[in-house]
Amino acid sequence: MYFDVDGHARACGRFTGPGSHRDWRVLPLALILCIATVSVGLADDFTRFRGDDATGVASDDPRLPSQWSRTKNVAWSSDVPGQGWGSPIVVGDRVFVSSVVADEENVKPKAGLYLGQGVRDPAKGIHHWMVYCYDLTDGKELWKHEAKAGRPVVPRHPKSSYAAETPTSDGERLYVLFGDVGLYCYDLDGTLLWSNPIEPKKTNMDYGAAASPVVHDGQVFVVYDNLEDSWIASFDAKTGEQKWRTKRNETHSWATPLVWGNDQRTEIVVPGNRMNRSYSLDGDLLWEFDGDMSILVIPSPFAAHGMCYLASGYVGDSHRPTFAIRPGAAGDLKPESNFAANEFIEWYQPTASAYNTSQLVYGDYLYTVYDQGFMTCHNAKTGDEVYGKHRFSPGGSFTSSPWAYNGKIFCLSEEGRTYVIKAGDKFEILNTNPLDEFCMATPSVVGGRLLIRTLTKLYCLTER
Protein backbone atom coordinates (compact mmCIF):
# COMPACT_ATOMS: atom_id res chain seq x y z
CA MET A 1 0.00 0.00 0.00
CA TYR A 2 1.08 3.56 -0.61
CA PHE A 3 -0.57 6.99 -0.47
CA ASP A 4 -0.86 9.24 -3.48
CA VAL A 5 -0.68 13.05 -3.36
CA ASP A 6 -4.40 13.18 -2.49
CA GLY A 7 -3.81 11.10 0.60
CA HIS A 8 -5.80 8.11 -0.70
CA ALA A 9 -4.68 4.53 -0.15
CA ARG A 10 -3.70 2.73 -3.36
CA ALA A 11 -2.75 -0.81 -4.30
CA CYS A 12 0.33 -1.15 -6.46
CA GLY A 13 3.18 -3.38 -7.52
CA ARG A 14 4.71 -3.17 -4.05
CA PHE A 15 2.33 -5.98 -3.03
CA THR A 16 4.07 -9.27 -3.83
CA GLY A 17 3.44 -12.90 -3.12
CA PRO A 18 0.43 -15.10 -3.91
CA GLY A 19 -2.24 -13.61 -6.14
CA SER A 20 -2.28 -10.48 -8.22
CA HIS A 21 -0.46 -7.46 -6.85
CA ARG A 22 -3.74 -5.53 -7.27
CA ASP A 23 -5.89 -8.20 -5.61
CA TRP A 24 -7.10 -6.79 -2.28
CA ARG A 25 -8.58 -10.17 -1.30
CA VAL A 26 -5.14 -11.37 -0.16
CA LEU A 27 -4.97 -8.65 2.52
CA PRO A 28 -5.91 -9.39 6.13
CA LEU A 29 -9.23 -7.94 7.25
CA ALA A 30 -7.56 -5.77 9.90
CA LEU A 31 -5.30 -4.18 7.28
CA ILE A 32 -8.24 -3.51 4.98
CA LEU A 33 -10.12 -1.79 7.81
CA CYS A 34 -7.02 0.25 8.66
CA ILE A 35 -6.61 1.36 5.05
CA ALA A 36 -10.28 2.31 4.81
CA THR A 37 -10.11 4.33 8.01
CA VAL A 38 -7.02 6.27 6.88
CA SER A 39 -8.49 6.96 3.45
CA VAL A 40 -11.72 8.34 4.87
CA GLY A 41 -9.92 10.44 7.47
CA LEU A 42 -7.60 12.27 5.09
CA ALA A 43 -8.60 15.25 2.99
CA ASP A 44 -9.73 15.78 -0.53
CA ASP A 45 -8.01 18.65 -2.31
CA PHE A 46 -8.95 22.33 -2.31
CA THR A 47 -6.77 23.72 -5.07
CA ARG A 48 -7.85 27.28 -5.87
CA PHE A 49 -9.87 30.30 -4.74
CA ARG A 50 -13.36 29.10 -3.71
CA GLY A 51 -12.49 25.45 -4.31
CA ASP A 52 -11.86 23.22 -7.29
CA ASP A 53 -15.10 24.27 -9.02
CA ALA A 54 -14.88 27.94 -7.91
CA THR A 55 -18.42 27.88 -6.45
CA GLY A 56 -17.78 28.04 -2.71
CA VAL A 57 -20.15 25.07 -2.18
CA ALA A 58 -18.76 22.08 -0.27
CA SER A 59 -20.13 18.56 -0.03
CA ASP A 60 -22.22 17.90 3.07
CA ASP A 61 -20.25 16.33 5.89
CA PRO A 62 -21.31 15.82 9.52
CA ARG A 63 -17.79 16.76 10.63
CA LEU A 64 -18.17 20.30 9.28
CA PRO A 65 -19.05 22.70 12.09
CA SER A 66 -21.92 25.16 12.27
CA GLN A 67 -20.71 26.71 15.52
CA TRP A 68 -17.23 27.74 16.61
CA SER A 69 -15.16 30.31 18.46
CA ARG A 70 -11.47 30.70 19.28
CA THR A 71 -11.80 27.67 21.57
CA LYS A 72 -14.90 25.76 20.43
CA ASN A 73 -14.55 23.13 17.66
CA VAL A 74 -10.93 24.18 17.05
CA ALA A 75 -8.82 21.24 15.88
CA TRP A 76 -5.78 23.52 15.81
CA SER A 77 -4.69 27.08 15.15
CA SER A 78 -1.31 28.25 13.88
CA ASP A 79 0.32 31.64 13.70
CA VAL A 80 0.92 32.94 10.18
CA PRO A 81 3.62 35.65 10.09
CA GLY A 82 3.09 38.81 8.06
CA GLN A 83 -0.05 39.68 6.17
CA GLY A 84 -1.83 37.97 3.30
CA TRP A 85 -5.41 37.69 2.14
CA GLY A 86 -5.22 34.66 -0.12
CA SER A 87 -7.26 31.64 0.92
CA PRO A 88 -5.47 28.56 2.22
CA ILE A 89 -5.35 25.73 -0.31
CA VAL A 90 -4.96 22.03 0.47
CA VAL A 91 -3.26 19.18 -1.40
CA GLY A 92 -3.38 15.86 0.44
CA ASP A 93 -2.47 16.57 4.04
CA ARG A 94 -0.68 19.87 3.33
CA VAL A 95 -2.02 23.42 3.67
CA PHE A 96 -0.39 26.23 1.71
CA VAL A 97 -0.66 29.99 2.28
CA SER A 98 1.27 33.01 1.04
CA SER A 99 2.15 36.10 3.05
CA VAL A 100 4.37 39.17 3.08
CA VAL A 101 6.41 39.97 6.18
CA ALA A 102 7.56 43.58 6.60
CA ASP A 103 10.55 44.63 8.68
CA GLU A 104 8.81 47.91 9.57
CA GLU A 105 5.29 48.57 10.76
CA ASN A 106 2.94 49.95 8.12
CA VAL A 107 -0.75 50.84 7.85
CA LYS A 108 -2.88 48.27 9.63
CA PRO A 109 -6.12 47.24 7.92
CA LYS A 110 -9.42 48.11 9.53
CA ALA A 111 -12.99 47.18 8.77
CA GLY A 112 -15.28 49.27 6.57
CA LEU A 113 -15.17 51.07 3.24
CA TYR A 114 -12.32 53.43 2.35
CA LEU A 115 -14.05 55.07 -0.62
CA GLY A 116 -10.82 55.97 -2.37
CA GLN A 117 -8.89 57.18 0.64
CA GLY A 118 -5.75 55.55 1.97
CA VAL A 119 -2.18 54.55 1.07
CA ARG A 120 -0.59 56.28 -1.92
CA ASP A 121 3.06 55.39 -1.34
CA PRO A 122 4.79 51.98 -1.32
CA ALA A 123 4.97 50.41 2.12
CA LYS A 124 8.05 51.10 4.22
CA GLY A 125 10.96 48.79 4.93
CA ILE A 126 12.25 45.53 3.52
CA HIS A 127 9.47 43.04 2.72
CA HIS A 128 9.75 39.27 2.51
CA TRP A 129 7.37 37.53 0.10
CA MET A 130 6.82 34.16 1.79
CA VAL A 131 5.19 30.78 1.15
CA TYR A 132 4.22 28.58 4.11
CA CYS A 133 3.22 24.92 4.30
CA TYR A 134 1.37 23.46 7.31
CA ASP A 135 0.33 19.94 8.25
CA LEU A 136 -3.45 19.61 7.87
CA THR A 137 -3.67 17.17 10.77
CA ASP A 138 -2.05 19.26 13.50
CA GLY A 139 -1.14 22.69 12.05
CA LYS A 140 2.61 22.17 12.39
CA GLU A 141 4.73 24.23 10.00
CA LEU A 142 6.37 21.83 7.53
CA TRP A 143 8.34 24.30 5.45
CA LYS A 144 8.61 27.91 4.40
CA HIS A 145 10.29 29.62 1.47
CA GLU A 146 11.20 33.22 0.76
CA ALA A 147 10.27 33.94 -2.85
CA LYS A 148 11.65 37.49 -2.81
CA ALA A 149 13.00 40.13 -0.46
CA GLY A 150 13.19 43.87 -1.05
CA ARG A 151 11.32 47.13 -0.85
CA PRO A 152 7.91 47.37 -2.54
CA VAL A 153 7.93 49.62 -5.58
CA VAL A 154 4.17 50.11 -5.92
CA PRO A 155 1.52 51.08 -3.36
CA ARG A 156 -1.43 48.90 -2.39
CA HIS A 157 -4.97 49.28 -1.09
CA PRO A 158 -4.83 50.17 2.62
CA LYS A 159 -6.86 47.08 3.56
CA SER A 160 -5.05 44.77 1.18
CA SER A 161 -1.68 43.05 1.18
CA TYR A 162 1.19 42.43 -1.21
CA ALA A 163 0.03 38.81 -0.93
CA ALA A 164 -3.62 39.22 -1.88
CA GLU A 165 -3.81 36.29 -4.31
CA THR A 166 -4.78 32.70 -3.48
CA PRO A 167 -2.24 30.08 -4.62
CA THR A 168 -3.32 27.18 -6.83
CA SER A 169 -2.17 23.61 -7.49
CA ASP A 170 -2.57 20.81 -10.02
CA GLY A 171 -1.93 18.18 -7.35
CA GLU A 172 1.73 17.88 -8.28
CA ARG A 173 3.03 21.43 -8.05
CA LEU A 174 2.16 24.61 -6.15
CA TYR A 175 1.77 27.91 -8.03
CA VAL A 176 2.03 31.10 -6.00
CA LEU A 177 1.32 34.49 -7.53
CA PHE A 178 2.44 37.76 -6.00
CA GLY A 179 0.64 39.95 -8.52
CA ASP A 180 3.13 42.75 -9.06
CA VAL A 181 6.25 40.69 -8.22
CA GLY A 182 6.12 37.30 -9.94
CA LEU A 183 4.71 33.80 -10.40
CA TYR A 184 6.52 31.03 -8.48
CA CYS A 185 6.26 27.26 -8.87
CA TYR A 186 7.22 24.79 -6.13
CA ASP A 187 7.05 21.08 -5.66
CA LEU A 188 4.96 20.07 -2.66
CA ASP A 189 8.07 19.74 -0.49
CA GLY A 190 8.99 23.40 -1.01
CA THR A 191 11.65 23.20 -3.70
CA LEU A 192 11.43 26.12 -6.13
CA LEU A 193 11.04 24.68 -9.65
CA TRP A 194 10.72 27.87 -11.67
CA SER A 195 9.70 31.51 -11.42
CA ASN A 196 8.60 34.27 -13.77
CA PRO A 197 8.99 37.91 -12.75
CA ILE A 198 6.08 40.28 -13.34
CA GLU A 199 6.83 43.90 -14.14
CA PRO A 200 4.81 46.02 -11.70
CA LYS A 201 2.42 48.57 -13.18
CA LYS A 202 0.38 51.44 -11.81
CA THR A 203 -3.11 50.34 -10.86
CA ASN A 204 -6.30 52.30 -10.34
CA MET A 205 -6.06 54.39 -7.15
CA ASP A 206 -2.81 52.48 -6.45
CA TYR A 207 -4.83 49.51 -5.18
CA GLY A 208 -2.35 46.93 -6.49
CA ALA A 209 -3.00 43.47 -7.91
CA ALA A 210 -5.39 40.85 -6.52
CA ALA A 211 -6.61 38.37 -9.18
CA SER A 212 -5.60 34.80 -8.28
CA PRO A 213 -4.04 32.35 -10.75
CA VAL A 214 -5.82 29.23 -12.03
CA VAL A 215 -4.34 26.05 -13.49
CA HIS A 216 -5.89 23.76 -16.09
CA ASP A 217 -4.54 20.99 -18.31
CA GLY A 218 -0.89 21.97 -18.03
CA GLN A 219 -1.41 25.74 -18.21
CA VAL A 220 -1.33 28.38 -15.46
CA PHE A 221 -3.48 31.40 -16.32
CA VAL A 222 -2.77 34.86 -14.90
CA VAL A 223 -4.70 38.12 -15.40
CA TYR A 224 -3.06 41.47 -14.62
CA ASP A 225 -5.31 44.46 -15.29
CA ASN A 226 -3.69 47.86 -14.62
CA LEU A 227 -3.49 51.41 -15.96
CA GLU A 228 -0.49 50.84 -18.25
CA ASP A 229 -0.38 47.42 -19.93
CA SER A 230 -3.11 44.90 -19.07
CA TRP A 231 -2.93 41.26 -20.14
CA ILE A 232 -3.99 37.67 -19.67
CA ALA A 233 -1.26 35.07 -20.12
CA SER A 234 -0.64 31.34 -20.01
CA PHE A 235 2.46 29.69 -18.56
CA ASP A 236 3.51 26.08 -19.01
CA ALA A 237 2.81 24.37 -15.69
CA LYS A 238 5.98 22.24 -15.78
CA THR A 239 8.54 24.68 -17.18
CA GLY A 240 7.11 28.17 -16.57
CA GLU A 241 7.59 29.07 -20.23
CA GLN A 242 5.06 31.64 -21.41
CA LYS A 243 2.79 29.96 -23.96
CA TRP A 244 0.81 33.05 -24.96
CA ARG A 245 -0.12 36.56 -23.83
CA THR A 246 -3.19 38.50 -24.94
CA LYS A 247 -3.55 42.23 -24.34
CA ARG A 248 -6.64 43.43 -22.48
CA ASN A 249 -8.22 46.85 -22.83
CA GLU A 250 -9.08 46.94 -19.12
CA THR A 251 -7.93 49.00 -16.17
CA HIS A 252 -10.31 48.52 -13.22
CA SER A 253 -10.66 44.75 -12.78
CA TRP A 254 -9.41 42.37 -10.09
CA ALA A 255 -11.57 39.26 -10.61
CA THR A 256 -10.05 35.78 -10.62
CA PRO A 257 -10.65 34.15 -14.04
CA LEU A 258 -12.85 31.08 -14.43
CA VAL A 259 -11.91 28.07 -16.55
CA TRP A 260 -15.44 27.16 -17.59
CA GLY A 261 -15.88 23.64 -18.84
CA ASN A 262 -19.39 23.45 -20.33
CA ASP A 263 -21.21 21.18 -22.77
CA GLN A 264 -19.89 23.19 -25.73
CA ARG A 265 -16.19 23.70 -24.90
CA THR A 266 -13.72 24.80 -22.24
CA GLU A 267 -13.12 28.54 -22.08
CA ILE A 268 -11.60 31.21 -19.82
CA VAL A 269 -14.11 33.79 -18.60
CA VAL A 270 -12.87 37.15 -17.31
CA PRO A 271 -15.19 40.03 -16.38
CA GLY A 272 -14.10 43.61 -17.02
CA ASN A 273 -15.17 47.18 -16.55
CA ARG A 274 -15.25 47.80 -20.32
CA MET A 275 -15.99 44.30 -21.58
CA ASN A 276 -16.82 40.91 -20.16
CA ARG A 277 -14.79 38.45 -22.22
CA SER A 278 -14.19 34.78 -22.86
CA TYR A 279 -10.98 33.34 -24.30
CA SER A 280 -10.07 29.99 -25.75
CA LEU A 281 -7.35 27.93 -24.07
CA ASP A 282 -5.04 29.36 -26.74
CA GLY A 283 -5.80 32.97 -25.76
CA ASP A 284 -8.14 33.81 -28.66
CA LEU A 285 -11.21 35.94 -27.97
CA LEU A 286 -14.43 33.90 -28.17
CA TRP A 287 -17.06 36.40 -27.06
CA GLU A 288 -17.41 39.74 -25.33
CA PHE A 289 -20.00 42.30 -24.37
CA ASP A 290 -20.20 45.66 -22.65
CA GLY A 291 -22.28 44.91 -19.57
CA ASP A 292 -22.17 48.49 -18.29
CA MET A 293 -20.33 46.96 -15.36
CA SER A 294 -19.53 48.76 -12.15
CA ILE A 295 -16.51 51.07 -12.23
CA LEU A 296 -14.59 48.52 -10.11
CA VAL A 297 -14.95 44.84 -11.06
CA ILE A 298 -13.99 42.50 -8.21
CA PRO A 299 -16.41 39.52 -7.84
CA SER A 300 -15.09 36.38 -9.54
CA PRO A 301 -17.17 34.43 -12.08
CA PHE A 302 -18.36 30.88 -11.43
CA ALA A 303 -20.65 28.32 -13.05
CA ALA A 304 -23.83 26.59 -11.89
CA HIS A 305 -26.94 25.14 -13.55
CA GLY A 306 -25.04 25.06 -16.84
CA MET A 307 -24.54 28.85 -16.82
CA CYS A 308 -21.71 31.25 -15.99
CA TYR A 309 -22.48 34.07 -13.53
CA LEU A 310 -20.81 37.48 -13.93
CA ALA A 311 -21.29 40.41 -11.56
CA SER A 312 -19.90 43.74 -10.32
CA GLY A 313 -21.30 46.19 -7.79
CA TYR A 314 -19.26 49.12 -6.56
CA VAL A 315 -21.33 50.77 -3.84
CA GLY A 316 -21.27 54.19 -5.49
CA ASP A 317 -22.74 52.98 -8.80
CA SER A 318 -26.43 52.86 -9.66
CA HIS A 319 -25.92 49.94 -12.07
CA ARG A 320 -24.59 46.86 -10.23
CA PRO A 321 -25.44 44.03 -12.61
CA THR A 322 -25.51 40.26 -12.47
CA PHE A 323 -25.59 38.21 -15.70
CA ALA A 324 -26.25 34.52 -16.25
CA ILE A 325 -24.55 33.44 -19.50
CA ARG A 326 -25.38 30.31 -21.48
CA PRO A 327 -22.57 28.33 -23.19
CA GLY A 328 -21.80 28.49 -26.90
CA ALA A 329 -21.68 32.26 -27.37
CA ALA A 330 -19.57 33.97 -30.06
CA GLY A 331 -18.76 37.55 -31.01
CA ASP A 332 -20.36 40.60 -29.40
CA LEU A 333 -23.31 39.60 -27.20
CA LYS A 334 -24.77 43.01 -26.42
CA PRO A 335 -28.04 43.55 -28.33
CA GLU A 336 -29.31 46.94 -29.39
CA SER A 337 -32.41 46.82 -27.18
CA ASN A 338 -31.75 45.13 -23.84
CA PHE A 339 -29.41 42.52 -22.38
CA ALA A 340 -32.05 39.83 -22.03
CA ALA A 341 -32.72 40.01 -25.76
CA ASN A 342 -29.54 38.07 -26.48
CA GLU A 343 -30.07 34.32 -26.66
CA PHE A 344 -26.89 33.66 -24.68
CA ILE A 345 -27.81 35.95 -21.78
CA GLU A 346 -30.24 33.76 -19.86
CA TRP A 347 -31.14 36.51 -17.42
CA TYR A 348 -29.94 39.85 -16.14
CA GLN A 349 -30.50 41.83 -12.93
CA PRO A 350 -29.43 45.51 -12.90
CA THR A 351 -28.79 45.93 -9.14
CA ALA A 352 -28.06 42.46 -7.77
CA SER A 353 -24.31 42.49 -7.20
CA ALA A 354 -22.00 43.26 -4.31
CA TYR A 355 -18.74 45.24 -4.40
CA ASN A 356 -16.10 42.81 -3.11
CA THR A 357 -17.75 39.49 -2.41
CA SER A 358 -18.39 36.84 -5.05
CA GLN A 359 -21.92 35.46 -5.15
CA LEU A 360 -23.01 31.98 -4.16
CA VAL A 361 -25.42 29.58 -5.89
CA TYR A 362 -26.64 26.92 -3.49
CA GLY A 363 -29.39 24.71 -4.81
CA ASP A 364 -31.76 26.84 -6.88
CA TYR A 365 -30.91 30.08 -5.10
CA LEU A 366 -28.33 32.78 -5.75
CA TYR A 367 -27.21 34.60 -2.61
CA THR A 368 -25.49 37.99 -2.60
CA VAL A 369 -23.66 39.30 0.46
CA TYR A 370 -23.23 43.07 0.34
CA ASP A 371 -20.19 44.79 1.82
CA GLN A 372 -22.28 46.92 4.16
CA GLY A 373 -23.96 43.97 5.86
CA PHE A 374 -26.98 42.85 3.82
CA MET A 375 -28.01 39.71 1.99
CA THR A 376 -30.40 39.17 -0.93
CA CYS A 377 -31.62 36.01 -2.62
CA HIS A 378 -32.63 35.41 -6.24
CA ASN A 379 -33.73 32.42 -8.23
CA ALA A 380 -30.50 31.17 -9.77
CA LYS A 381 -32.24 29.88 -12.90
CA THR A 382 -34.48 32.86 -13.69
CA GLY A 383 -33.03 35.84 -11.80
CA ASP A 384 -36.35 36.54 -10.07
CA GLU A 385 -36.05 38.04 -6.60
CA VAL A 386 -36.80 35.60 -3.78
CA TYR A 387 -36.18 38.08 -0.98
CA GLY A 388 -34.77 41.59 -0.87
CA LYS A 389 -32.14 43.11 1.38
CA HIS A 390 -32.00 41.77 4.91
CA ARG A 391 -29.48 43.21 7.36
CA PHE A 392 -27.11 41.08 9.39
CA SER A 393 -27.45 41.59 13.13
CA PRO A 394 -25.23 42.55 14.81
CA GLY A 395 -23.94 44.60 11.89
CA GLY A 396 -20.69 44.06 10.03
CA SER A 397 -18.77 44.77 6.83
CA PHE A 398 -17.77 42.08 4.32
CA THR A 399 -14.96 41.32 1.89
CA SER A 400 -14.76 37.53 2.23
CA SER A 401 -17.05 35.57 -0.10
CA PRO A 402 -19.77 33.31 1.35
CA TRP A 403 -19.63 29.50 1.33
CA ALA A 404 -22.13 26.70 1.98
CA TYR A 405 -22.57 23.17 3.27
CA ASN A 406 -25.07 21.11 5.28
CA GLY A 407 -28.03 23.30 4.27
CA LYS A 408 -26.44 26.50 5.59
CA ILE A 409 -24.85 29.65 4.18
CA PHE A 410 -21.81 31.08 5.98
CA CYS A 411 -20.82 34.76 5.78
CA LEU A 412 -17.57 35.94 7.40
CA SER A 413 -17.37 39.63 8.31
CA GLU A 414 -14.22 41.72 8.46
CA GLU A 415 -14.72 41.85 12.22
CA GLY A 416 -14.17 38.08 12.35
CA ARG A 417 -17.80 37.11 12.97
CA THR A 418 -19.39 34.37 10.86
CA TYR A 419 -23.16 34.56 10.36
CA VAL A 420 -24.81 31.19 9.79
CA ILE A 421 -27.88 31.57 7.55
CA LYS A 422 -30.49 28.91 6.87
CA ALA A 423 -30.52 28.10 3.15
CA GLY A 424 -33.86 28.60 1.42
CA ASP A 425 -36.42 31.20 0.47
CA LYS A 426 -36.51 32.98 3.84
CA PHE A 427 -33.73 34.90 5.57
CA GLU A 428 -32.98 33.42 8.98
CA ILE A 429 -29.82 33.83 11.07
CA LEU A 430 -29.25 30.58 12.96
CA ASN A 431 -26.24 31.72 15.00
CA THR A 432 -23.05 33.78 14.88
CA ASN A 433 -19.50 32.56 15.47
CA PRO A 434 -16.84 35.03 16.70
CA LEU A 435 -13.10 34.83 16.11
CA ASP A 436 -12.59 38.44 17.24
CA GLU A 437 -9.90 39.34 14.71
CA PHE A 438 -9.82 41.13 11.37
CA CYS A 439 -10.68 38.82 8.43
CA MET A 440 -10.70 39.32 4.67
CA ALA A 441 -9.61 35.95 3.27
CA THR A 442 -12.31 33.61 1.96
CA PRO A 443 -12.30 30.35 3.97
CA SER A 444 -11.63 26.90 2.53
CA VAL A 445 -13.46 23.61 3.17
CA VAL A 446 -11.83 20.21 2.79
CA GLY A 447 -12.09 16.73 4.28
CA GLY A 448 -14.54 17.63 7.05
CA ARG A 449 -12.47 20.66 8.04
CA LEU A 450 -13.09 24.39 7.73
CA LEU A 451 -9.98 26.57 7.36
CA ILE A 452 -10.33 30.25 8.27
CA ARG A 453 -7.48 32.71 7.93
CA THR A 454 -7.50 35.78 10.16
CA LEU A 455 -5.01 38.64 10.23
CA THR A 456 -2.51 36.61 12.27
CA LYS A 457 -3.73 33.00 12.43
CA LEU A 458 -4.93 30.00 10.48
CA TYR A 459 -7.76 28.08 12.17
CA CYS A 460 -8.73 24.50 11.43
CA LEU A 461 -12.29 23.91 12.64
CA THR A 462 -14.18 20.65 12.82
CA GLU A 463 -17.15 19.29 14.76
CA ARG A 464 -16.01 17.74 18.01
Automatic annotation (TrEMBL):
<dbReference type="InterPro" id="IPR011047">
    <property type="entry name" value="Quinoprotein_ADH-like_sf"/>
</dbReference>
<feature type="domain" description="Pyrrolo-quinoline quinone repeat">
    <location>
        <begin position="131"/>
        <end position="385"/>
    </location>
</feature>
<protein>
    <submittedName>
        <fullName>Outer membrane biogenesis protein BamB</fullName>
    </submittedName>
</protein>
<dbReference type="Pfam" id="PF13360">
    <property type="entry name" value="PQQ_2"/>
</dbReference>
<dbReference type="InterPro" id="IPR015943">
    <property type="entry name" value="WD40/YVTN_repeat-like_dom_sf"/>
</dbReference>
<dbReference type="InterPro" id="IPR002372">
    <property type="entry name" value="PQQ_rpt_dom"/>
</dbReference>
